[in-house]
Amino acid sequence: MVRLVPNAGADLAEDAPSTSGKEYLTYFAHRLLEFRRPELESVAQTVGCTEEQLQWRAPAGDVEHSPFWYLTLPSDEAAVEISRRMILTKMLVEVWAEGEDWEELKAAFEAFPEDRKSIWLRPDLTFRVVVESFGSSLPMDEQLDIIKRLEFIPFKGSVRLRDPQVRFVLLRCDCGDHGSLIDATVSPRLYFGRVVGTSNRGVIEAYSLTRRRYLGPTSMDTEMAFVMCNHAGVRRGSLVLDPYAGTGSILVAAAHYGARVMGADIDIKIICEGKIGKGGERLTIYSNFEQYGLPAPVGLIRMDAHRHPIRPDLSEIFHAIIGDPPYGVRAGGRKSGLPKAEMAQRLLIRDRDTYIPSTQPYTLGECLRDLLDLSARLLVVGGRLVYFLPATPGTYDEADIPQHPALKLVANSEQILTSRYSRRLITMEKVQPYDVATATAYYAARPDLTMAIDRLHDIVYDQLPVLPTAEAAATTAAVGADCDGSATSVVKPRRRCRGKNL
Fold first, then answer.
1. CB 318 within 8 A of CB 383
2. Where is the Ribosomal RNA large subunit methyltransferase K/L-like methyltransferase domain (predicted)?
3. Can you say how many angstroms the Cα of residue 381 is from the centroid of all Cα atoms in its chain?
């Protein structure tokens, strides 16, 4: 696990900021807050950094959701490589000075080692200074006034607004009582430093779903698809599988990073038939790859993890498995096979060219057990499984996250969707080879596949009681029972959902 040290009250002998120029200020985008640090850690390891080389230092005031965290990296070269993959981080900055006001900022700049400043303040280097504000807007005239206040910095080169050799930034955090939508607990602060790398969020616009040729109602949004690939450590030459490919949004993002991709889905119409476009042409997953000039998938198969066609002797062939399992809000889970009541009426297959296999309901608990077991078999050691787990305030318990003896939980990041439910991006890493006996014994000790979240559709759309959590149960016990001796039931009040019941 990457080390985290506090900011306030740190032991200087052990937790002081790096003095080697290897600590960088990470200026995060203020969205998907729980995804940001795990994404940056994964990207750092993807480009070759080890966990021992990474260390987080908490922001000023130790506010968890602050966008200004500090990260120790091996070198500027590593920071530049990381910045090319960042989605939720705006920039990495070598901080020369910071403070609560301009006096502190100036004093900190003067105390910064002269030899580390002078190599970037040479007269033969072109430069540019940009100003960014977090928590409040800054009109252009105010930005120019702030730049003028940096007169204590001895800039010597020529100003070049486009493609300068050195970029400096003045970051202002101002979340005070002036109508800001950002939590005012983020401390007011000024930061000045050299920009080492900026993010490549332009890929989100380049791959926007609004212009995607082949889409479905549950296509993964572009930003999240790239974030999932970063969590999975997708890189050039990786072999990536999406077991719930749909229209291929995750596969497109993985292919952008140079991976060879393979998709599977239980719906043969999505995988093979596609749909007819406005011009009368047939659109399929391959159409999306053609649109972006990406190599076509190495294969698309009709498959579900419950009865997959992959030979038992095949193992450790994928570097990443990334998917969004069906969890029953917009599309219920299905698995291959006939319900028991219909097994006796099963008819012989007369035409295999037109035959569509029967399916039956697939609970989330069973689906995730199959997904983890398949991943434990097929991932290389060190490969990652990344998938979404639905959650609701009344049912989520971290202890209920599915586990496997060959997989280790790396990250668990929540994305709030509505007041009724959210989803958590689960990132797991294969830490040991798959062993049949160990996996069989592990499952035998846990025969119950039922998960509270299996009732997700009812919880979201119906006025049904939520199963009591441990906290609610304790509260009930403290209050006591009703007059008739029965325990008080815990019911979470819910609003009707405005969306359609799909």
1. yes
2. 211-335
3. 21
